[in-house]
Amino acid sequence: MIEAIVLALFSGVARTVSRLLNARLAQSIGVLPGTLVNYLGGLATATLACLTLRDASLWSAAAWPAVPAWAWFGGAVGVLFVILCNRATPHLSAFAMTLLMFGGQMVAGLLLDAWQHGGFDAVRVVGALLAGVGLAGTVKLDRGARSHLSITEDKSLISHQISDEGKRLL
Amino acid sequence: MFTWMAFASGMLTALMIHLNGALARSLGNNPASVIIHASGLGVVLLLLSVRRFALWRPGVAPWWYGGGAVGFLIVVFANAGFLRLGVALTVGLGMFGQTVSAMVVDHCGWLGVPRVPFDVRKLPCLALIAAGIALMAR
Predict the structure, then answer these.
(1) Higher pLDDT residue, A146 or A76?
(2) H helix intervals, A30-155
(3) How confident is the model at residue A70 (pLDDT cuts 50, 70, 90)?
(4) Which one-letter DSSP state was computed for residue B58?
(5) Is B62 in CB contact (< 8 Å) with chain A?
(6) Inter-chain Cβ pairs, chain A and chain B, closer than 8 A
(7) Which end of chain A is more exposed for a tag (fewer CB within 10 A), N or C?
(8) Which residue of A5, A77, A96 is in closest CB contact with B93?
(9) How confident is the model over B50-79, as a mean pLDDT?
(10) Orientation of helix B67-85 relative to helix A2-29, angle to 10°
(11) pLDDT tens readout for residues B16-33
């Protein structure tokens, strides 16, 4: 349990680093080519990890039928996310963007959990709302601290909080 | 319209963790991340096939290309979280880790971001996020 919690936390840390690098790249070569590089790098690393750890279940045909049909589309959903994000970011404040995305994540997350584990837990909704209020405060203070920076730098938190700069449209 | 787009992109993140997690449960975490990156790559190639593009321009530092390798860690860590914690908790914890690490990066000005010194008034907000997550984990 503790191990899973620490790993989930670190997936967020990795997201900060990865989005910073990807945002820089997208700024100079564009969002979609940047996304292509991102997936290429990820694929190379994943393949290397499989080979070094001798993880053969990918090539053992026996494991394939056990996969639910819809589970193959996670990567495609990721691309859709990047596109939607980059469309919306230039039109919304960093504050609205962060909270809307968090709201979407929590609503879908709680619904998916309720569907998988049966039943809806009101206490978890209260927990999500509390976390949302805390996040709102954090982003609000951050906006204040950034007001002395130039307009172009203003969205730098959001650029590593969410996807790449939205100013670069597809 | 854009409000809904932002909200929907958040929902997609949760859906993605659910789908990727299901794949990791069947195939194992590393093989699943091969499939996840390959399918994403396929979709991007499809979208890019109708236009010209360059993967390099003068002035691009080599380490900017490392985002994907770090992205592999996002997928593997999130999947490991999902298998024990479900979607909502994994997403919440990821958001917390991301917020805190972004603050550290901003405070130190790492990776060329403009420096934003840490504001102690953010501490109660962070405590509130942690309390909310603890409530969800209970």
Answers:
(1) A76
(2) 31-52, 74-88, 94-117, 122-146
(3) very high
(4) T
(5) no
(6) 435
(7) N
(8) A5
(9) 93
(10) 150
(11) 999 999 999 988 899 999
Distance CA B96, CA B24 (A): 23
| SS3 state at A147 | coil
Identify which of A43, A109, A149 has the shortest CB distance to residue B114: A149
- Chain A residue with minimum CA distance to B45: A36
- Structural domain spans, chain A: 2-161
Cβ contact B57–A28 (<8 Å): yes
Query: In whole numbers, what is the pLDDT of chain B averaged over residues?
Result: 94
How much of chain A, in percent, has pLDDT values that exceed 90? 61
Type of residue at A80: L
For residue A71, what is the enclosing H or E element? Answer: none
Do the chains contact at A21 and B70, CB–CB below 8 Å?
yes
Q: Which residue has the tokens 């938190």?
A: A157
- pLDDT of A86-118, one tens digit each? 889 889 998 899 999 999 999 999 999 999 877
Partner-chain contact B59 A142, CB within 8 Å: no
**Secondary structure of chain B: what % helix, strand, coil (to 5)?**
80, 0, 20
